[in-house]
Design goal:
mainly alpha, Farnesyl Diphosphate Synthase, two-stranded antiparallel ribbon
Length: 333
C-alpha cells in the first residue's frame, strides 16, 4: 500500500474518530448475520466480515451523517446496510470470477462451495433491505435499492464488456460507476438524507462518493499491474489472466498497432495465453505510458471528489474525507 506510517492513513484516522459508532455497526452486523435454522450463513459471512477489510463504505455513511449533524440512531442501521450489500456482492463476485483469494485469505466459495456463497449473498441482500426499512425513511430506501440494482447492472455489463476489445473508456466508466461507485455514492448520500440536509448538500455528498468510488476502482485496476501482492492480497496480473479489459489495457488497445492488437486479440479476446504474455502486456503498457495515464485519471477523479465537498461546512471529518481522496491514489505510484 502507499503510505507506511499508520498515523498518516486517513481511513485509520476515520476509523479512530468513528470508533464508538463502528463498534455499534459491527455488533448490529453480527446480530443480523445470525440464523436460527442455517448455521452455514454466519459461518460463511463471518469468514468474509472477519477478514479485516477496512469497512470503508460504512465509515463513509457514518462520517457523512455525523458531518451533517445527525444525532439519531439510524446511521448505524444504514452503515450496516451498506456493509451487508458490499459483502453480498463480494460473495457473488468471487463465484463469478472463480476467485481463490480475497483479502489474502481463501474465498468462501473455495472453502465451502459456489452454492453456499451465492445463497448466503442472497441472504445478506435480504437482511440489508430489512435494515434499511427499519429507518422508516422512504428516500433512504429508494437510494439504497437503486444502488443495489445499479451494482448488479454494472456486474452484468462487465460480463459482456470484459473481454471485448471494442470496450472503450466510456463503457469502462459505466461498469465502474455500477459495480463500485454506486455504493460509495449511496453510502455518502444516505448520511445526508437521514440528517435532513437540503438538496445542495446531498448532491455534494453523492458527487464525492461517486468520484471517490471511480478513483478507488481505477487504482484497484492499476494495482493489479503495479501492486504489491502482500499488500493487495492479489497476484500481479490476475485481471490479465482473467481476461478483464480494465483501464490500463483499454488505453493500450486504443494505441496499439496491428501487431499489438493481434496480441490483445489473442490473449484477452480469445483467452489464448502463453508463457511470457503477462510480461509482454506490461511492456506494451509501459511503452505507451498507459499505467501513468491511468494513474493520472485516478488523480483527476480524486480531485473531483475533493472539489465536490466545497459546499460542506468545515470540520475535522471533512478534512479526513479530503485526505481520504488523496490517500486512495497514494496507494499506487
Amino acid at each position: 500500500m502507499g503510505l507506511d506510517n499508520a498515523a498518516t492513513k486517513p481511513h485509520e484516522r476515520l476509523a479512530a474518530a468513528l470508533d464508538a459508532d463502528m463498534t455499534a455497526v459491527n455488533a448490529l452486523i453480527r446480530e443480523r448475520m445470525a440464523s436460527e435454522h442455517a448455521p452455514r450463513i454466519p459461518e460463511v459471512s463471518a469468514h468474509l466480515v472477519d477478514a479485516g477489510g477496512k469497512r470503508l463504505r460504512p465509515m463513509l455513511t457514518l462520517a457523512s451523517a455525523k458531518m451533517c449533524g445527525y444525532e439519531g440512531p439510524f446511521h448505524i442501521h444504514l452503515a450496516a446496510t451498506v456493509e451487508f450489500i458490499h459483502t453480498a456482492t463480494l460473495l457473488h463476485d468471487d463465484v463469478v470470477d472463480e476467485s481463490g483469494q480475497r483479502r489474502g485469505r481463501p474465498t468462501a466459495n473455495l472453502l465451502w462451495d459456489n452454492k453456499s456463497s451465492v445463497l448466503v449473498g442472497d441472504y445478506l441482500f435480504a437482511r440489508s433491505f430489512q435494515l434499511m426499512v427499519e429507518t422508516g425513511n422512504l428516500r433512504v430506501l429508494d437510494i439504497l435499492s437503486n444502488a443495489s440494482a445499479t451494482i448488479a447492472e454494472g456486474e452484468v455489463l462487465q460480463l459482456t464488456a470484459a473481454s471485448d476489445l471494442g470496450t472503450d473508456e466510456d463503457i469502462y466508466l459505466k461498469v465502474v460507476r455500477g459495480k463500485t461507485a454506486a455504493l460509495f455514492s449511496a453510502a455518502m448520500e444516505v448520511g445526508g438524507v437521514i440528517a435532513g440536509q437540503g438538496d445542495d448538500v446531498v448532491k455534494a455528498l453523492f458527487a464525492y462518493g461517486d468520484a471517490l468510488g471511480i478513483s478507488f476502482q481505477i487504482v484497484d485496476d492499476l494495482l493489479d499491474y503495479r501492486g504489491n501482492t502482500q499488500a493487495t492480497g492479489k497476484n500481479v496480473g490476475d485481471d490479465f489472466r482473467e481476461r478483464k479489459l480494465t483501464l490500463p489495457v483499454i488505453k493500450a488497445v486504443a494505441k496499439a498497432d496491428t501487431t499489438e492488437r493481434d496480441f490483445w486479440q489473442r490473449t484477452i479476446a480469445k483467452g489464448d495465453q502463453r508463457d511470457g504474455d503477462l510480461e509482454e502486456a506490461l511492456r506494451l503498457m509501459d511503452s505507451h505510458g498507459t499505467l501513468d495515464a491511468t494513474r493520472a485519471d485516478a488523480v483527476a477523479w480524486a480531485d473531483k471528489a475533493k472539489a465536490s465537498l466545497s459546499v460542506i461546512e468545515q470540520s475535522e471529518l471533512k478534512d479526513m474525507l479530503l485526505d481520504l481522496a488523496d490517500y486512495v491514489v497514494a496507494r499506487v505510484r
